[in-house]
């Protein structure tokens, strides 16, 4: 197949460039591969690239080149689709490059297009061509600036066929942030080829490290740790490869520690493998590391490797005390202790170095190509087929799922259904399939949340189910409350806006279910069933202000019995405490305190129903009251609090207002009342 990689450029010494070229070179053994860069600014590359990989530069910014684009007026204009930070003043990727990218995507004959840059991904996602569209994330999307993160999460990811991340932790994190695309996220570590140099002999008393000299790389901690071992091991030295904004501060730290001859800032080097093999110990002190290519390169060179146990990369690359050593994140003293241990124990260095070489092979070209081909196969299967299911809720609350005939063809005998929490809080729930049917128990299966359902082949392929129909009449009058376990436990299947099957699960040990709401100009009366509650004589209903949770109103129920609770809310009382400007609403959320103030809290809600969104279905009368209120002062006050203080303390004219009382249900189906000046 033909595979195109999209990058900003190949003319800088960065991890994304190295990883992309390594993967492209590996894939060129079996496929037609090209790398398309938005711009070219120099002749040579920093990293090796297989001669079988084609290079395409959409704009050429080399002044000596006959294809020079710098004199095109669009080369100085900011792009329109490609998101830029609002603070940027310099055009790096131009409107010309963006226009040519759109033209390329409209004409390419590639089977797969892989974006290695999140900003390019937002442009790729707009293309409606039939090739597979993949985003390859080399960092952690949660830390991107909002100008790229927001369109990436809301618009781009849902339009892509697949998204790859570097570690299982990042897959879980991104699945939580963008749950609708969780089934399209795959783990793809970076490809690290054989260094092509002789293995380190481990007898040179040199510690090596490398990377961009930035704060989160934490090289200052490495210098400090080395200074703690320096006197005990005077014949050892430290070499740090790379460049970056922290270079000057590191130089000062080294000089102040009196280690100018023993701690050397070597500058950037490419390829780094030959330099790494000069050492015996490699250290990655990063506080944040999406993967850590240089760590794998050091392992492949046979060094004894040490890394701080930050959240992602290192712990997925090495196993502590097997093929390397992990030290606690940010613990400089622990790092110093490990360096002393390695400096004084050549046998330990040899054991770790030997195991590291074997371990690093799983990131080599062969395994990497196998992973990519497996992901593309899964993506193609997911993109080319849809599986529909019909749902039936039984009288006892179970959900029966019946797949369309032939849906499981090609999924093998181990095919099952997987229920996945879109909030990312709960583990997957697997349902066995028998002749295209499965049953989800209405009790004890799903935690509270919203779940999607996927067909899984038992290995790697997942296809989300579409909803062909949902029979939920058993939930019109559900058999609730339950006498054992949670009082409320109900699963409601429904068709989402994109046609996919969703399951809304609600699980409450205690619950107050709204039965009726009656409104008059004087009051709003609410009757609720109480389940799993033991109401004391001190029980109250509490209204909590949405803007200020310290503002609460307590109501004594007018009637309490074993199964029901009734309370009334005075419209005049709610209107009189509305102190916000006339353009702003007050919102009060209602809950029951069964044993009185300071005790347990149970929201008053509408959940025992087949209605997915009570906020859209249940509409109640809205009493309107005439009130007198001070006219708001001008907007010259600096804050809302200052404006309110002015209203209360200055002699302002009084005007007649109309205040509307609006009972309603929130998006979470909790009962609330909004007061609005009309």
Task: Provide mean pLDDT, rounded.
Answer: 90
The biggest sheet amounts to: 11 strands, mixed
Number of helices: 16
Q: How many extended strands?
A: 33
Low-pLDDT ranges: 632-640
- Gyration radius, in Å: 32 Å
Basic shape: globular
N-to-C CA distance: 64 Å
Helix content: 10-25%
The amount of beta strand, in percent, is: 25-35%
Query: Pairing-aware structural class of the strands and helices?
Result: alpha/beta
List the helices and strands and how they pair.
Layout: E1 2-7, H1 15-27, E2 32-37, E3 54-57, H2 95-107, E4 112-115, H3 118-124, E5 132-136, H4 146-159, E6 162-165, H5 168-177, E7 185-187, E8 206-210, H6 219-230, E9 237-241, H7 247-256, E10 263-267, H8 273-276, E11 281-284, H9 293-300, E12 304-308, H10 313-317, E13 325-327, H11 332-343, H12 346-360, H13 365-384, E14 387-393, E15 399-403, E16 416-421, E17 429-432, E18 437-440, E19 449-456, E20 462-471, E21 488-495, E22 501-508, E23 511-519, E24 523-531, E25 540-545, E26 552-555, E27 559-560, E28 564-570, H14 571-576, E29 586-593, E30 602-605, H15 614-617, E31 624-630, H16 640-649, E32 654-665, E33 671-677
Helix pairs in contact: 1-13, 3-4, 6-11, 9-12
């Amino acid at each position: 197949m033909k595979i195109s990689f999209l990058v900003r450029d190949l003319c800088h010494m960065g991890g994304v460039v190295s990883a992309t070229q390594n993967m492209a070179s590996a894939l060129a053994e079996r496929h037609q591969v090209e790398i398309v860069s938005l711009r070219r600014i120099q002749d040579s590359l920093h990293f090796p690239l297989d001669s079988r990989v084609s290079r395409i530069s959409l704009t050429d910014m080399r002044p000596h080149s006959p294809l020079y684009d710098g004199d095109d007026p669009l080369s100085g204009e900011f792009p329109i689709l490609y998101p830029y930070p609002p603070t940027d003043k310099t055009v790096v990727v131009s409107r010309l490059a963006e226009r040519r990218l759109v033209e390329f995507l409209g004409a390419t004959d590639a089977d797969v297009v892989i974006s290695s840059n999140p900003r390019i991904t937002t442009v790729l996602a707009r293309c409606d061509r039939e090739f597979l569209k993949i985003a390859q994330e080399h960092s952690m999307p949660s830390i991107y600036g909002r100008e790229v993160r927001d369109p990436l999460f809301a618009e781009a990811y849902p339009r892509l066929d697949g998204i790859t991340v570097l570690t299982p932790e990042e897959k879980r994190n991104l699945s939580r942030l963008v749950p609708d695309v969780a089934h399209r996220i795959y783990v793809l570590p970076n490809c690290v080829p054989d260094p092509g140099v002789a293995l380190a002999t481990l007898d040179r008393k040199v510690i090596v490290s490398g990377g961009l000299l930035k704060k989160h790389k934490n090289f200052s901690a490495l210098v400090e740790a080395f200074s703690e071992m320096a006197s005990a091991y005077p014949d050892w030295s430290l070499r740090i490869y790379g460049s970056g904004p922290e270079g000057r501060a590191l130089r000062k730290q080294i000089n102040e520690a009196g280690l100018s001859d023993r701690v050397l800032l070597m500058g950037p080097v490419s390829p780094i493998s030959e330099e790494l093999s000069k050492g015996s110990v490699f250290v990655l002190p990063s506080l944040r590391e999406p993967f850590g290519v240089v760590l794998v390169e050091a392992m492949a060179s046979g060094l004894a490797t040490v890394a701080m146990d930050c959240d992602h990369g290192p712990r997925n690359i090495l196993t502590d005390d097997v093929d390397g050593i992990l030290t606690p994140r940010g613990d400089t003293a622990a790092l110093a202790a490990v360096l002393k241990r390695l400096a004084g124990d050549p046998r330990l260095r040899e054991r770790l170095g030997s195991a590291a070489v074997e371990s690093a092979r799983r990131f080599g070209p062969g395994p990497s190509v196998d992973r990519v081909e497996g992901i593309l196969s899964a993506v193609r299967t997911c993109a080319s087929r849809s599986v529909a299911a019909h749902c039936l809720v039984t009288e006892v609350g179970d959900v029966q799922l019946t797949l369309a005939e032939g849906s499981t063809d090609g999924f093998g005998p181990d095919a099952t259904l997987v229920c996945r929490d879109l909030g990312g809080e709960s583990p997957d729930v697997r349902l066995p399939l028998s002749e295209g049917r499965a049953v989800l128990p209405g009790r004890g299966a799903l935690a509270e949340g919203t779940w999607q359902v996927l067909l899984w082949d038992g290995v790697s392929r997942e296809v989300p189910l579409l909803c062909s129909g949902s029979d939920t009449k058993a939930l019109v009058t559900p058999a609730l409350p339950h006498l054992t376990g949670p009082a409320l436990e109900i699963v409601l299947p429904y068709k989402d806006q994109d046609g996919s099957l969703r399951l809304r699960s609600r699980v409450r040990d205690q619950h107050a279910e709204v039965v009726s709401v009656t409104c008059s100009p004087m009051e709003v009366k609410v009757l609720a069933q109480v389940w799993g509650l033991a109401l004391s004589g001190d029980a109250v209903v509490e209204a909590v202000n949405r803007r200020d949770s310290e503002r609460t109103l307590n109501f004594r129920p007018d009637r309490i019995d074993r199964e029901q609770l009734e309370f009334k809310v005075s419209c005049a009382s709610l209107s009189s405490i509305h102190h916000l400007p006339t353009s702003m609403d007050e919102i009060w959320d209602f809950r029951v305190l069964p044993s009185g103030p300071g005790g347990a809290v149970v929201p008053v809600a509408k959940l025992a129903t087949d209605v997915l969104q009570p906020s859209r279905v249940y509409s109640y009368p809205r009493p309107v009251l005439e009130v007198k209120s001070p006219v708001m002062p001008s907007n010259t006050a600096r804050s809302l609090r200052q404006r309110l203080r002015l209203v209360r303390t200055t002699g302002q004219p009084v005007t007649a207002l109309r205040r509307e009382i609006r009972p309603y249900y929130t998006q979470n189906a909790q009962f609330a009342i909004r007061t609005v000046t009309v």
